[in-house]
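Hi support team,

I'm filing this because I wasn't sure whether my run with NAP finished correctly. The job status page said complete, but I'd like someone to confirm that the output block is well-formed before I use it downstream. Pasting the exact inputs I used:
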Amino acid sequence: MSTTWHILGAGSLGTLWAARLARAGLPVRLILRNQTRLASYQSAGGLTLVEHGETRTYPVIGETPDSQEPIHRLLVACKAYDAEAAIAQLQQRLVPNVELILLQNGLGSQDAVAAQLTQARCLFASSTEGAFREGDWRVVFAGHGYTWLGDAAHPTPPLWLDDLHAAGIPHAWSTDILTRLWRKLALNCAINPLTVLYQCRNGGLQDHHCEVATLCAELSELLECCGQPAAALDLQDEVERVIHATAANYSSMYQDVANARRTEISYLLGYACHAATRHQLNLPHLQQLQVRLVDELLARGLPRD
Ligand code: NAP
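And here is everything the job wrote out:
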């Protein structure tokens, strides 16, 4: 009998994972915020995933955090700023050797969770898959991609990677997951805040080549200083490639701001600036970018963190 996949957060990525695991016949349970959200979910009749224009509903079982069933494997699919508190509510239900898969973007939330659960195995994920919510309990699978999983403390892959294979979730085990997370963070810092400040698609940054190059130089210095030289390699080339390849797209931060949603700034640019301060590195353009971005968020009535 397979171990149940408890999925915390039925948003874009949570739904994407839950639907694919469930359709492969694997046991899945969704943990929703509270009774109100559970009632709303139950009246919708399940999770709806729209993929290649086809719509299918998966009647995955839902529950609230105070349900009694022990949790052996938890996929954490909340935003970075919600992860720690959402997991804390489940503390009583986590078995001592529970495995957590942390899907959060950026850095900082993973360490906060790991520090809270010293006996748990915390696996980190970095994904290039893309999905968005079209409404409550309805998600569009917008961008096919790949998910790298790794455990900064133990290099051995877990046996349940077979479940991901069965579910058709493209993935690979990574022995350098921190390098991947740092690299993704650096790409994000070089692109996303500027798309908010210039109110443009990613391609619009081709008009701000010098500013992007200066940020890449500072980010590379930061990565080297934080013991991540591999994440710094040819950073500017990759940033330029991404800007070109995704020219027509709006960045995730742009979309959050456009939809008046809280951003994950504290786990991206905020984390980078904090790391620079900790290492007494002077990175004036990066620090100035943070000031400009926070000003923009405040001007729009959005949280600064
Ligand atoms: P999302 O659509 O906003 O979903 C987050 C979900 O977490 C929401 O359903 C929210 O509940 C739920 N949640 C928050 N606190 C909770 C709690 N205490 N108990 C139960 N549920 C709780 O976010 P997302 O886009 O899937 O992103 C999740 C993470 O993946 C982020 O760090 C993001 O950067 C990363 N990521 C996303 C994508 C993507 O394409 N979406 C791609 C790569 C990485 P409500 O529904 O009640 O608000």
